[in-house]
Each structure stands twice: as structure tokens, then as C-alpha cells.
Amino acid sequence: MVALVIGIVGLVQLADLDRRSQEVNTEALVPARQLAEVRRAFLQTRVDALADEMLPKTGPEDVAHQA
After folding, report:
1. d(C-alpha 52, C-alpha 57), whole Å
2. Does 15 fall in a domain?
3. For residue 66, what is the DSSP state?
4. Domain for residue 36, yes or no?
5. Residue pLDDT, tens place only, 28-63
6. CA end-to-end span of the chain
7. What is d(CA 18, CA 11) in angstroms, rounded to the nearest whole number?
8. Whole-model pTM?
9. Nearby residues of 42 by Cβ (< 8 Å), 6 or more positions away
10. How many independent structural domains does the chain possess?
11. Which residues form the domain of 18?
């Protein structure tokens, strides 16, 4: 009887742990990953802009990318 109670309590706690780990994933890890992707894109844009300014201009100008 004691083993049955311990088993049931263990399963209930394991289910609760699974629910909390899913909450951590959806409420913390996914937004952090999305924020990292935005930050990476922002930094890449800065690097590209600096490279465009710093690299020497050789050959004809690319009029397709000028505003």
C-alpha cells in the first residue's frame, strides 16, 4: 500500500515537473531565442553598412542598390 502511494505521488510530481519545464520553454527560452535572432540580424546589418563604407569602391557603381 505504501509503495502504491509513493508511486502515485511520484507520478503526480513528475507530471507537474513536465508542465513546469514546458512553461520555462515557452515563456523564457523561445522569447530569448527570438530576441537573439533579432539582435543577430541587427548586428549583421551594422557590419554590412560598415563594410560598405570601409571597403574601397572598385568597378562601376551598382545602381540597383542605390536609393
Report:
1. 9
2. yes
3. -
4. yes
5. 899 999 999 999 999 999 999 998 888 877 766 666
6. 78
7. 10
8. 0.55
9. none
10. 1
11. 1-53
